[in-house]
Amino acid sequence: NQYVVPINPLGFSSLAYEIGVNLNYFGNFFKFDYIFHGNEYLSFGQPYLRQDIRGFKVFDRLRLLRNQVFLTFRFENLSDNTKKQRDYTTNFVTWEVSAMYSPLMNLPNLSLTYSQSTSDNGVPNADTLRALNVSVNKLSFDISYSFEYIFRNRVNFTFSLTGSDDRTILNSDFKNVNLLLSLYSDVRENIRGNFILAFNSSKFRRPIFDTANKFIGVRDEKFNYVSFGGGADYRLGKMRVWGNLAPSFGDLRRLYIYFGGSYEVARNQSLNFNCNLLFYNYVDVVAYLTYRISF
Q1: pLDDT digits over 15-61, tens only?
Q2: Which superkingdom, per the lineage (predicted)?
Q3: Radius of gyration of the chain from Cα atoms?
Q4: Nearest alpha carbon to residue 52 among 13, 87, 25
Q5: Half-sphere exposure of 81 toward its Cβ, with a 13 Å CA cutoff?
Q6: Domain limits of the chain?
Q7: pTM for the full model?
Q8: Which residues pair with 36 in a beta bridge?
Q9: Is the separation of the CB atoms in 30 and 60 below 8 Å?
Q10: The domain 143-295: what is its CATH number?
Q11: Which among 168, 164, 90 is positioned nearest to 126, based on CA atoms?
Q12: What's the rounded Cα separation, in Å, for the pair 205 and 98?
């Protein structure tokens, strides 16, 4: 049984390794990584690392005009089924290009990013249970600007457009538009206020199955909401407290309240408290108290 732990180390299913090369020359940073994570690999220190994956990653960033313009390219080609435990292998290919302008003078910072991710396991598209053949495209634009009016302020606007193309018989495509406007103000040296306004619109196709779990069609659905909120962050000596309130309207009707605080007990040591309150038709509370030691 390959799922029994501990396992035979000769099988390499719990083996993981990464090989990387970094080059930094003439305003250009280049990075190449090859990774292999076995299908039974588990990191106790980093449990979020992907299992059952192998492939390579390429990253290249070029700096121009006295580090005011950054051009970035990223490419990944990964696949699973490292021990051939299935009769099909899923390939994950992702590429991304971005440009960022960060002027030395008092002008807005601009960034534009386009990415595409594809996942294909080669299973015939008519197989409703196993087939995976989808492509996701995302375009995002971000602009931020710092200015002084009454207070020191920083405003940020983000626009993103995401869409998928599902080539299987399920045809479960989706489209999403997201707008986010945020404002941060230094009311005093130890008080920072914030305001956020967000709009989200999603259209997607939901597969429909009959009682025998047979695919019979798709249903178009929408999910739209508007959210806004504000809060503050206050520092006094070794103590810091913060709080935010953000109601949402539309298809997502809720009230989100977040507050907490921290106290520096000693150097590199702090006591922290966080509480999240979500008000739907019911109340969901997540609170935790931690003692942090930094080395």
Answers
A1: 888 999 999 988 899 999 999 988 877 776 677 788 889 999 999 99
A2: Bacteria
A3: 24
A4: 13
A5: 13
A6: 1-105, 143-295
A7: 0.83
A8: 17, 54
A9: yes
A10: 2.40.160.10
A11: 168
A12: 30
